[in-house]
């Protein structure tokens, strides 16, 4: 599973592309928009975007693509569920979105359009979105048992000999532990539980860390040699991001499992309906917003 994120300024063009019948498009789900027809969807997005007129690119567009080898087991329900987990994991909450499936390619893929102006008129954060998306896609691929198109996960490890066997064991331990830890002490403790020692390499004559070495069964490996994502700087960045997300979740009073905020909506998402009151609610919010600006 991989994701491509882009931003734009035209909801009309974006909706036309996502709902293009020439791509055998099927609208699967939506939240916060009128689902009566194409024009209703566009109008709903535009009205909410007007709550934050200073944002020049209010259109968020995500493509979630899966391996063709997973096609047989990826029905609409499961794909929408994975999309909901992805949105929640990326912090794309409290805003409008639609999810459509295209069948113009061999591999299954979804298009998600979301409003970068949330329901309160604030901008949905895109900070480090590509890095966070790459990491989240790997997590979801593992969680749902999806096919890894390439990389270390495809290696026939039962045929490996030392030291490569140990190297791949450390790779899997790091892949599982880093997303769950918030700082180096927590990570080193988790690795120690797996029989892996952690040693930091300092810059000559200073206390500045310039690298990290992981060792098991008497075989030491530089983090970057295990995989580029496990260099000291990249792990340190990932831990810092985990820490900020945990603090943010605590401040919002979020539940420990962020997926819960979307997964309970799955039944409703799979049955998009036309809400006759939605436009009136949007108009009222926009009227209040304009009144505040005049005061």
UniProtKB/TrEMBL annotation:
> Domain named MobA/VirD2-like nuclease: which ranges?
17-146
What is any Pfam family matched here? Answer: Relaxase
Please give the InterPro entries that the UniProt record associates with this protein.
Answer: Endonuclease_MobA/VirD2
**What is the name attached to this protein's record?**
Relaxase/mobilization nuclease domain-containing protein
């Amino acid at each position: 599973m991989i994701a491509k994120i882009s931003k734009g300024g035209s909801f009309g063009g974006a909706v036309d592309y996502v709902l293009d019948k020439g791509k055998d498009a099927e609208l699967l789900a939506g939240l916060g928009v009128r689902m009566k027809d194409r024009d209703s969807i566009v109008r709903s997005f535009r009205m909410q975007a007007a709550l934050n007129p200073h944002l020049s690119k209010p259109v968020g567009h995500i493509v979630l693509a899966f391996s063709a080898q997973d096609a047989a087991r990826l029905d609409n329900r499961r794909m929408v569920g994975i999309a909901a987990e992805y949105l929640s994991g990326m912090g794309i909450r409290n805003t409008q979105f639609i999810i459509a499936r295209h069948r113009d390619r061999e591999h299954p893929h979804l298009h998600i359009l979301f409003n970068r102006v949330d329901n309160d008129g604030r901008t949905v954060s895109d900070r480090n979105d590509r890095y966070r998306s790459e990491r989240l896609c790997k997590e979801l691929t593992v969680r749902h048992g999806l096919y890894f198109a390439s990389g270390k996960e495809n290696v026939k490890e039962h045929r490996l000999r030392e030291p490569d066997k140990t190297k791949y064991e450390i790779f899997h331990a790091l892949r599982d532990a880093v997303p769950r830890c918030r700082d180096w002490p927590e990570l080193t403790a988790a690795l120690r539980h797996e029989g892996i020692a952690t040693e930091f390499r300092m810059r000559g004559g200073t206390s500045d860390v310039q690298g990290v070495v992981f060792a098991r069964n008497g075989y030491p490996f530089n983090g970057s040699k295990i995989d580029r994502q496990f260099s000291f700087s990249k792990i340190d960045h990932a831990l810092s991001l985990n820490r900020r997300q945990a603090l943010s979740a605590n401040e919002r009073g979020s539940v420990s499992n962020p997926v819960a905020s979307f997964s309970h909506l799955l039944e409703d998402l799979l049955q998009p309906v036309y809400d006759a009151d939605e436009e009136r609610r949007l108009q009222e919010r926009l009227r209040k917003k304009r009144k505040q600006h005049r005061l």
